[in-house]
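Severity: low
Component: inverse-folding endpoint
Summary: output formatting inconsistent between runs
Steps to reproduce: submit the following structure tokens with default settings.
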């Protein structure tokens, strides 16, 4: 379908300022941005979107989430990390059925689309359910099966890895869907299992997605057991590579950061989740100073309570000004790049999505900026970081297909999703 978005202020990449905003006409053809201001040959618009009063920008890229965890939203709150995870969330996960993960993922994708996310890196636990939800709703996704394993449970670890490989083979070549392997964390995967996962990822030519240095308990546990930091342990096991995404990275020494920089990994920072669980915040100033590719994630709704990337963008750009006492650190422009192009690079989708350039996929969002909190329009990039809250999202396109418009989902039965998720929560006895 050929789509013209006309007369719209557009967030475009700029070598000097990172982004610039100017009025444009955007031509979409064969799932891609076929022209910016110049109509491509043979173009015939079947759909015309009027951009008057709106802002067009690249879709946000959620660099770390667990979409199925929406079923745990607003449940185990105000708890320390260890009690939250081991005392509440993991026992509930043990009672989930595969179809529960499907409906939770669908609810997660509904929220992401509604608030402007067009692509995410998802860590999940049930084979096929997340991929099925993605295929049905049409969002772009990188899937990574959460893997745990050790010498104490060799059978379980091997089974999970076999399932992950089989799933990758099953869905290989699906449009808008790619995969990584996800050894859960250094405290749930021993070095032998980590090496096995790395070797398998190399064979499949896929990246790795892992939680790293999220809490002080993790630092203490790994140091006590192995006599090193989590980063050092993972580096020894070969986990840290240019196609690795390390989530959280709150507790890092200078030597940890140096290792990460040398290996060329990406870091997915999750400011809201880390703050809510009392874990602190990533050393953003040091990470960026070493040239590490930092992207932004929400984490799951069990620890963030929302999958709204605009909220996390706001926290990202404000939090680190306060912690560094430098009002110029991590500008709105830099924050927006972290939430878009940097995320695409981390997910192996650089040059595919995350920017508005000719030839890239048409993963775009239209914001209605005729809102009191978006006026006056002195600097629309600043408005995206400091004023927007996600409710401005009017239209969402992925692969040049309209998935959400004017409050309506084009590919999802929202009422059915709400009904099924409520049924799951009642069955699990989660009402407090």
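Observed output (run 2 of 3):
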């Amino acid at each position: 379908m050929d789509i013209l978005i006309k007369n719209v202020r557009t967030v475009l990449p700029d070598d000097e300022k990172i982004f610039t905003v100017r009025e444009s006409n955007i031509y979409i053809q064969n799932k891609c941005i076929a022209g910016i201001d110049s109509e491509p040959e043979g173009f015939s618009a079947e759909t015309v979107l009027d951009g008057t009063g709106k802002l067009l920008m690249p879709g946000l890229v959620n660099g770390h989430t667990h979409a199925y965890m929406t079923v745990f939203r607003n449940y185990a709150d105000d708890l320390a990390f260890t009690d939250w995870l081991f005392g509440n969330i993991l026992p509930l996960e043990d009672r989930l059925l595969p179809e529960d993960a499907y409906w939770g993922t669908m609810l997660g994708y509904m929220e992401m689309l509604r608030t402007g996310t067009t692509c995410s890196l998802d860590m999940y636990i049930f084979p096929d359910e997340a991929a099925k939800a993605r295929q049905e709703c049409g969002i772009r996704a990188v899937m990574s099966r959460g893997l745990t394993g050790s010498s104490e449970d060799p059978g379980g670890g091997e089974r999970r890895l076999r399932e992950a490989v089989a799933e990758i083979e099953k869905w290989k070549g699906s449009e808008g869907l790619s995969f990584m392997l996800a050894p859960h964390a250094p405290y749930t995967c021993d070095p032998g299992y980590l090496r096995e996962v790395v070797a398998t990822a190399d064979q499949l030519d896929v990246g790795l997605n892992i939680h790293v240095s999220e809490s002080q308990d993790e630092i203490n546990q790994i140091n006590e057991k192995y006599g090193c930091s989590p980063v050092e342990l993972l580096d020894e096991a070969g986990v840290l590579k240019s196609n690795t995404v390390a989530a959280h990275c709150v507790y890092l020494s200078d030597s940890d950061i140096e290792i990460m920089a040398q290996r060329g990994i990406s870091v997915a920072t999750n400011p809201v989740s880390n703050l809510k669980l009392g874990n602190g915040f990533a050393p953003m100033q040091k990470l960026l100073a070493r040239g590490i590719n930092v992207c932004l994630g929400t984490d799951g709704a069990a620890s963030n309570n929302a999958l709204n990337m605009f909220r996390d963008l706001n926290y990202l750009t404000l939090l680190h000004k306060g912690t560094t006492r430098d009002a110029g650190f991590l500008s709105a422009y830099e924050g927006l790049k972290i939430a878009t192009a940097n995320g695409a690079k981390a997910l192996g989708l650089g040059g595919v999505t995350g920017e508005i350039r000719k030839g890239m996929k048409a993963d775009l969002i239209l914001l209605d900026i005729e809102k009191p909190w978006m006026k006056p329009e002195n600097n629309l990039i600043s408005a995206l970081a400091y004023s927007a809250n996600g409710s401005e999202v009017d239209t969402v396109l992925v692969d040049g297909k309209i998935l959400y418009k004017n409050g309506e989902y084009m590919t999802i039965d929202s009422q059915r999703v709400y009904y099924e998720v409520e049924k799951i929560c009642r069955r699990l006895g989660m009402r407090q």
